[in-house]
Design a protein that fits this description.
By secondary structure, this protein is an alpha/beta fold. It contains twelve helices and 13 strands. It comes from Coleophoma cylindrospora.
Length: 348
């Protein structure tokens, strides 16, 4: 990997910043695709990146809009690997149901296929790793509504769902299916010299160095676990009991570059085995690990988060990559520790 250059998109997100750090630690050089210089400056300012002092091993390329035609043509030149983590999806709030196809699903498909097209037009690329999702292979109703005994693994496949959709998140789930199948069709049609691996996380939980305001600690999927620790309802309603530590997701992306791992595969990233995650267990985890903060009232630890049962088997991923996913306890501890540090409180 000496002198090998990795293009990483989405570097200012929860998964992205961890992946940049993991890639640098593994010895790769990183080119971060960012929307602005200010975004890249925020990456450079994180304590871990500063401590690594990557120098010329960490550079940037400005891609203001990943959905425009040929957005990544320049960004991919000279790289050996691509880690496509950025999500082109526009959040559904403010859109009417008849806009979900044009504002959620098609942008997701275009963003993914767009970077594949840019990669196809250059030379020297060995592998593309794409951040997909478990909902790309789990039917929406079984994931969010129905109680089923099906154990979903990475061999499971579903057809492209058709609207109308009942909720923006259902349209988001459909977008992930579209992107996965669009990638498969691109590979089958174009037959590039490089291959693709899809990493399929569940709800990603963990610390995020780019969050400097404790009020933002529950943004994104961290809210499913941590809102209740702050005394609130998660606001998500019954949430599928499926989670993974952000550090494990980052590790998978980087280790997927290893040529000994065969390309053309999907890898689920879900901790807890078929038992999965029980979101309300966070309250007990925090009580045991941070009793002083709970007693002091810094962590009210009396909110609610309802679990919807789902069975997902990611054991093949653990076997292929040779490590076991960190537990839900470690996920919760990671976020709690960061929150207390941001407040200047004792972590104990």
């Amino acid at each position: 990997m000496a002198n090998e250059l990795v293009l990483i998109t989405g570097g200012t997100g929860l998964i992205g910043i961890k992946t940049i750090v993991a890639a640098l630690k593994a010895g790769y050089s990183v080119r971060a695709a960012v929307r602005s210089q200010a975004k890249f400056n925020s990456i450079l300012a994180t304590p871990t990146v500063k401590a690594l002092a990557p120098g010329s091993r960490l550079t940037s390329v400005i891609v203001p809009d990943i959905l425009v035609d040929h957005a990544f043509d320049e960004a991919v030149k000279g790289v050996q690997y691509i880690l496509h983590i950025a999500s082109p999806i526009i959040k559904g709030e403010g859109f009417t149901p008849d806009q979900w196809e044009s504002h959620l699903i098609q942008p997701a498909l275009k963003g993914t296929v767009g970077i594949l097209e840019s990669a196809y037009k250059t030379t020297g690329i060995k592998r593309v790793v794409i951040t997909s999702s478990e909902i790309a292979i789990i039917p929406w109703e079984e994931f969010i509504v129905k109680e089923v005994d099906t154990v979903f693994d990475d061999t499971y496949q579903i057809p492209i769902p058709k609207g109308p959709y009942s909720h923006p998140f259902e349209a988001y789930a459909a977008s992930k299916v579209h992107s996965l199948i669009g990638t498969k069709d691109f590979i089958a049609t174009k037959k590039p010299k490089w291959d693709v691996i899809n990493i399929m996380p569940s709800f990603v939980i963990g610390d995020n160095e780019l969050v400097a305001d404790p009020k933002l600690i529950t943004d994104g999927t961290n809210g499913a676990a941590f809102a209740q620790v702050l005394g609130s309802d998660s606001g998500w309603g019954p949430t599928p009991g499926s989670s993974v530590h952000v550090a494990d997701v980052a590790r998978l992306h980087v280790e997927a570059l290893n040529p000994q791992i065969e390309g053309g595969q999907n890898f689920l990233a879900v901790s807890g085995g078929e038992h999965g995650t029980v979101w309300s267990d966070a309250l007990d985890i925090v009580n045991r690990n941070f009793p002083k903060a709970v007693a002091k009232g810094v962590l009210p630890n009396n909110g609610t988060s309802i679990t919807k049962r789902i069975k997902v088997d990611a054991s093949r991923t653990e076997k292929v990559f040779g490590f076991k996913f960190l537990s839900y306890e470690e996920q919760v501890k990671s976020v709690t520790k960061q929150y207390l540090e941001l407040l200047g409180e004792e972590v104990a």
